[in-house]
Amino acid sequence: MPIPEKTTSAHRDRSEVAPTRQDEVAAAGSELVGGRFGRWARPGASALTPVRVIALTAIGMFALGMVQKLPCYNWAWFRGTSSQYTHACYSDIPHLFVGRGFADGLVPYVDRLGGDMQYLEYPVLTGLFMQVASWLTLPFDGDLMYREQMYWLVNAALLMACTAVLAVCTARTHRRRPWDALLVALAPALALTATINWDLLAVALTAAAMLMWSRGRALACGVLLGLATAAKFYPFLLLGPLLVLCWRAGKWRAFGSALLGAVGAWLAVNVPVMLLAPEGWRKFYSFNRERGIDFGSFWLIITQRSGTEITAGAVNVYGMLLVLLASAGIAVLALAAPRRPRFAQLAFLLVAVFIVTNKVYSPQYVLWLIPLAALARPRWRDFLIWQGCEVLYFLGIWMYLAYTSSGEKQGLPTEGYQFAIVLHLAGTLYLCAVVLRDILMPERDPVRRDGSDDPSGGVLDGAEDVFTLGGSAGRDSYAAPMLQGPRVDWGAPRE
């Protein structure tokens, strides 16, 4: 079989990959907007470039998500608890405006709160985001309900900007595959969960970090990962895939730059708060350590079905062991696979493992995986199967909360909610399975079918292996097993 010429994605043909020529689901869906990409189409002839289309689409979906929250915005957040669940429009944002002291002008981490919480339980950069939104809300004077509405609107505007950043960065990460980011822009779970909490800040920073890595800017990638970790813990996990991939390719300087940037940026954000308000700064870490089993986790199913209580300390240990075992397995896979896995593939697998084994799964956690899934497995069928499971879980948790908070017991009973959790887990594990298959059978990887190596890999793209567990060190990773020749126009969909 012919071997693709060794070259990086940056030097290959820059023509865009048209999903409607390779993906039968995308081809069928394209009939709504004029049909598949034609043979004589000129992608650069219109002012509506792929990145612009994707950004506008993402903003439009975000706006639809805001419309979905209208019943809560108008009244349900303020008139009892069950109505915001039956309308599936719950958000932490207006509740924490009051519950975490922003309405009273308290300073996060410094001023003590009333009740059991004592201090804000969010990472420092997220706390700053919440505080900035509170300052921007000050000009809107009125009763408490009006101020809560304005606080949510201000946060929604800032999170919409994060959504635009997320869409643009994802579209630019794979130079020849910008349309893969349409998976992010049109993700139903993005619209439904974008304004539940502040996770989009960390997601956008992580997407920007992956873009920097794809352009070979390791230090900038590390800085952005450090900032993302200062907003949410999970982005720190991406250093693990970078470690094993750089190990296999011998790119230690690039990994060292990324690690240095991540640690430095995290310290720059956290040390001032750590020194000025150490007790408040520790709250995020103590809260997550002491938090018990909560909604969305398979641990909850175990406790509900067995009637056995698992303490927070015990589930912390069990969860950590599962994550370490799975991480070790992913590392072995990365070093022993017939061809070096792509960065996005390993990043998706590791974050998915963290989510699946966690003691809590809030509905907005799906945002962590959406851009990683679009880069790791850009196939509409698999993506929509997973999204369908996540949408059903989104509805399931609110109906379950309606059932438990309503005196009439109207909603989804415990057994139904457990089924929703299983659906969420099954959808996530299904996507993990097809990504694993792509790693073990690289000829099935949709990104590599045109001869590409790792468009999001930066210095790893086209690099030779210097260490593998399969005894092939020194072999050119880019020329590793491929059943296709150089880039061709595939025409009909292939799976």
Number of strands: 0
Q: Which spans have pLDDT < 50 for at least 5 consecutive residues?
A: 1-14, 479-495
Helical element count?
21
Q: Could you say how many structural domains there are in total?
A: 1
Helix/strand order, N-terminal first: HHHHHHHHHHHHHHHHHHHHH
Strand content: under 5%
Pfam families: GT87
InterPro entries: GT87, UCP010361
Protein name: Glycosyltransferase 87 family protein
Region (Disordered): 1-21
Write structural notes for this entry:
With 495 residues, this protein is mostly helical. The protein has one domain (9-17, 51-479). 59% of the residues lie in helices and 0% in strands. It has helices spanning 19-22, 24-29, 50-68, 70-76, 82-86, 92-99, 124-137, 144-173, 182-185, 188-193, 199-214, 218-229, 239-249, 252-276, 278-290, 298-306, 312-336, 343-357, 366-376, 380-405, 414-440. The two termini are 19 Å apart. Mean pLDDT is 89; it is low at 1-14 and 479-495.
SSE topology:
Blueprint: H1 19-22, H2 24-29, H3 50-68, H4 70-76, H5 82-86, H6 92-99, H7 124-137, H8 144-173, H9 182-185, H10 188-193, H11 199-214, H12 218-229, H13 239-249, H14 252-276, H15 278-290, H16 298-306, H17 312-336, H18 343-357, H19 366-376, H20 380-405, H21 414-440
Helix pairs in contact: 3-8, 6-8, 7-8, 8-11, 11-12, 11-19, 12-14, 13-14, 13-17, 13-18, 14-15, 16-21, 17-18, 18-19, 18-21, 20-21
